Amino acid sequence: MIIEKETGRSTVLEVQNLSKTYGGLNAVSNVSFTLQPGDIFGFIGSNGAGKTTTIKMISTLLEPTAGTAVLDGFDIMNDPMEVRRRIGYMPDFFGLYDDVRVWEYLDFFATIYRVPASERQGVISNVLELTDLTFKRDAMVASLSRGMQQRLCLARCLVHDPTLLLLDEPASGLDPRARAELKELLAELGRMGKIILVSSHILPELADFCTKVGIIERGELLAFGPVNEIARGMEATKVLEIRLTDRAGDASMFLHGKPGVNHTFLMGASTVKIDFSGTEHDQVELLRTLVTSGFPVMDFREQGADLEDVFLRVTKGALN
Amino acid sequence: MNVWYKAEERNPMLVETRQATLRMLGIQNLNASARWNVAMVGVVFLGLTALAMRYPGVVMPNILMAMLLVLLNFILPVVLHGVIAKEREKRSIDILLSCPVSPQQIVNGKALRAAPWFLLISGLIMLPLLGSLLARAVIKEPMPDARYGLAGTLLIAFVLLISSSAFFSAITILVSSMVKRAHLALIGTMGIFFLLYFVGPGMMAILNINYGYEIYHPYVAMTLLFEGTTDFLGPWWVILIQTVLTAVCLFMAAKNVSRDYREGDRKINRA
After folding, report:
1. What is the ipTM of this complex?
2. Cα-flanking dihedrals φ and ψ of residue A4, to 5°?
């Protein structure tokens, strides 16, 4: 197991220069990233960018042309069976057996993942409860709505308590309510310490709950990390928004020339926006100075980076 | 059941056979219609058995075993034709391949889905046969002639049935592993049997080649076995050849499934 020096946390998934070539076409080129327990990783890219190929390689469904991935110390090339025992893979289609009942479907996969016979019924009850499908236990799979089928797929991925969940476009085709429920469920799984890799090209779907994102285009990972960090890495400045109960004009004048402040913009009677290029220490000092100078600061925050903006700026819109 | 669960630990794909058997017997989720079906089948076969015991000469073991062979030759492909092709059709093969089971375990597990059908069909047909034989023994009616005695001939016939069923299943699974659509698998399998068992011997007869097919043809082997005209190795040749071909077909089917894994969905998309 790899231990990261900075955080001291165990690194569970390490993707190292993963590449896949079909003939002369580079579907994925040297993709590398590291994920830790509790990380919800949004894998973003246009259709055909290489998301599914990367996920299939991590799930051992495709042999990489070069590079590898290591999960819990097990290499996808050398120990594919051990890796499979630790992953829950949900493709971008349901792939359900529709002529069986919900519990039979889960019993099938619990057996495949070698959940002991004595524990299977308990495990099935737990995953059904987690995915809110207990009341459909005896229903035929074919009779479930699309949202429920999606939740059943997720329940199937959870029967063996995997370390890593690989979810390829999990929310596509779902109605807004089903999407909201899915997001909530994924956030809960993240809190349970699972590593979740979610791919999507629908950005608002990921923006709310992903702790890290990776932007892929033409098979190359262009950016990786928390959205704010990526945004910060792209531009030298950031925007700070300060809300005051009054005296916003005075505050705007006061902030001129302070360390890191490039421009100030008065936004109505109570808000000032600052184009800021200072360090985090400068940012702390700026707030302290404002407060000690008697300005009635109600809110002081860095304007959040918009995932859609970040995506559009990082990518060029090219496909393979 | 514990023995079965132990077997499932070795090859988890046996879960398919367990679920299919329980569903077929109506034990799992027994509902009114399943109970009715089980009761009806029971009544029909008890009636047939009673009839066979009352008129024992009507039930001819050779005809019954040949009928059983034909029945299995048609039913097993119908049961198994979709086991891999349907997985591809529904794209659930990706999910299965991302699980900790090898392609060979997948193929072997799916082949064993034929077992409950074999047991059910042969069991039900054996019931009137055993009834008839019992009645003949009781009323001391002469038994049909057979080279190895009736019991020995029936035993060999049953081994021949098992090896033929395994071969029918293996061919079906091999074809199923080669195509993407379940109905193509069924048509392809039936086509192969038609060529193998009807067109092949027919062509040989036209060309005046009157030997060769009896070493692979289960129908011929079964008929000759009861006629007592076969040599000592007759049925055993067929059993041996079918067993070897079964192993080869299952191995090749597993290779086809692994190729899905190696080449990913590009190959499937091209199909």
Report:
1. 0.80
2. -80, 135
